[in-house]
Specification:
The structure holds 2 protein chains of 2 kinds. By secondary structure, chain A is mostly beta strands. Chain A is built from no helices and 9 strands. The radius of gyration of chain A is 13 Å and the shape is globular. In chain B, a hairpin with a 6-residue loop joins strand 5 and strand 6. The chains are: A mainly beta, B mainly beta.
């Protein structure tokens, strides 16, 4: 059972925006960087956001990240059918001394 | 171009053992921590273990402590996951990933079943 909680699913029409929340605690999000990952069916997970709000090279600016206290948020604008898949937050947990992934959120483009 | 290629996944009976390998190319493996992450069927991502550049520090998720051991051979550009006393709950696709999970392999499937 993950210590980072995400909504099970979000959905929106093509071109619209979705946000995904990730709720943690002071032992993880509150004191460590948050990353976000995209996991599309049949592919390896892909890093979308690191250090709370930075995008790796090649990740479009439709994807954005933010952090406040013990929560983080991933935003996806200009939603495309190719964005359908599962999204996970992740952070180091200093109490558990493990890296923890969120529970995962399925994004559906209506 | 960074590449991570896992191998070693197989079908094994409960109580059995497997050794997974991850070969890295396109970057200096000896300058990065490395991670193992798994995804069981129908489940989310679960971080399994990581290992420091020189192998002097390793961390494991509780569910594999005492059964799994990660190691590395930087000269061979490889990271390993030795898995002993496997249970059906270890059935998953296992990925190796670079420090900060920037790069991932394609995964290797481990199936534990009688």
């Amino acid at each position: 059972q993950s210590v980072l909680t995400q909504p099970p699913s979000v959905s929106a029409a093509p071109g619209q925006k979705v946000t995904i929340s990730c709720s943690g605690s002071s032992s993880n999000i509150g004191n460590h960087y948050v990353s976000w990952y995209q996991h599309l069916p049949g592919t390896a997970p892909k890093l979308l956001i690191y250090e709370n709000d930075k995008r790796p090279s090649g990740i479009p600016d439709r994807f954005s990240g933010s952090k406040s206290g013990t929560s983080a948020t991933l935003g996806i604008t200009g939603l495309q059918t190719g964005d359908e898949g599962d999204y996970y937050c992740g952070a180091w947990d200093r109490s558990l001394t493990v890296y923890v992934f969120g529970t995962g959120t399925e994004v559906t483009v209506l | 171009e960074v590449q991570l290629v896992e191998s070693g996944g197989d079908f094994v009976q409960p109580g059995g053992s497997l050794r997974l390998s991850c070969v890295a190319s396109g970057f200096n493996l000896n300058t990065y921590w490395m991670n193992w992450v798994r995804q069981a069927p129908g489940k989310g991502l679960e971080w399994v273990a990581n290992i420091k550049q020189d192998g002097s520090e390793k961390y494991y998720v509780d569910s594999v402590k005492g059964r799994f051991t990660t190691s590395r051979d930087n000269a061979k550009r490889s990271v390993y996951l030795q898995m002993n006393n496997l249970g059906v709950e270890d059935t998953a696709v296992y990925y190796c990933a670079s420090e900060d999970h920037q790069d991932w392999g394609q995964g290797t499937l481990v199936t534990v079943s009688s």
